[in-house]
Amino acid sequence: MERKNLKDLKFDATYTSINKYVDSLYDGFIPSVVGKIRTLDHVTLVPDVIYSKVIPTLSTTFDFKDAAACSAFSNSATSSITGVTITTCFKEYEEQICTNSLSQYWAGAYMRRGDYETVPFEQAFIDEKMGKLAKKLDVIFWQGGDSCLTTGLIATATQSGATVVTATFSISTASTNGVVATLDTMVDNLSTDLLSEDDLVLFVGQDTFDKYTRSIRNLNYYHFSPDEINNGVVRLFGKRNVTLVATVGLDGSNKAFLTKSSWIFWGTDVNPSEAPIKSDYSSYLDASILRFKIKIGVALAFPTYAVVAR
């Protein structure tokens, strides 16, 4: 392989090029991170939550009654209007990148499945950060973090009265055991008011998703085509209105969550007034200093209608 000059690699040993690249992405960095989060394809994103916001939600049940001439007025319907409060908290991470210890690699074969001329280091560096940040935020949304947003959606739903079923996510050897039976049990525990809804979504980890699709294959459901599995999303077998979604936020957790997607809210401040990402080269430390900030919040409407497996 031909030896490359640092200038040819579009890399500056003082990281000033990274600083400029980060500055150019200032307004678009957080939206780009948010766009990589799988969960957000199936829940409601609430932007511009500076601190707290109330989201109105509606649920209606009714029964017809016999209509008689001049019949007295009596309630035969119940409309529940609930203001769901979503409160965001600040998350940040900081990174110090030593230029001397890293610069020795730029003359070698650093880029995988690419080349130096078409993939500048700055772009590869930031793309890597975006992907890892998206995964970490997904985990925080579902499982919580530290003192800021201690409980994610699973714990929030459980504490608020969601139905909890015992999870067994092993590969099924029959429809009556393992992951297939667990997911069927979750649907069986849904309120009858929701069984006909078109936006039911069942979230699982990628590991659980793989066990489910493998179980379907092993049970010889040949009419269940692999073509139906699209980017970690598939209709739950036999349930036309339940979408099974693999999300990194539940990987390895042995947990699953089922409700209407329109009742799940992810709060953020897409363009916070505070600096979302900044990079600067410190001559004193001989290192590039990177800091990233984002706001994240979790909220669930009508938690008693949700089903959790754990």
Q: What would you say this structure looks like, in words?
A:
There is one protein chain. With 310 residues, the chain is α+β, with helices and mostly antiparallel strands. The protein folds into 2 domains: 134 residues; 120 residues, hypothetical protein PF0899 fold (2-Layer Sandwich), CATH 3.30.2320. It is built from 7 helices and 13 strands. The protein has a 6-stranded mixed beta sheet, with helices on both faces. α1 packs across α4. The longest helix has 23 residues. The radius of gyration is 24 Å and the shape is globular.
The percent of residues in helical segments reads 10-25%
Instruction: List SSEs in N-to-C order.
Output: HHEEEEHHHEHEHEEEEEEE
Count of structural domains = 2
The total count of strands amounts to 13
* Major sheet attributes: 6 strands, mixed
Q: What gap, in angstroms, lies between the N and C termini?
A: 52 Å
Report low-confidence residues grouped into runs of 5 or more: 1-15, 113-119
The coarse silhouette is globular
Mean pLDDT: 82
Strand content: 25-35%
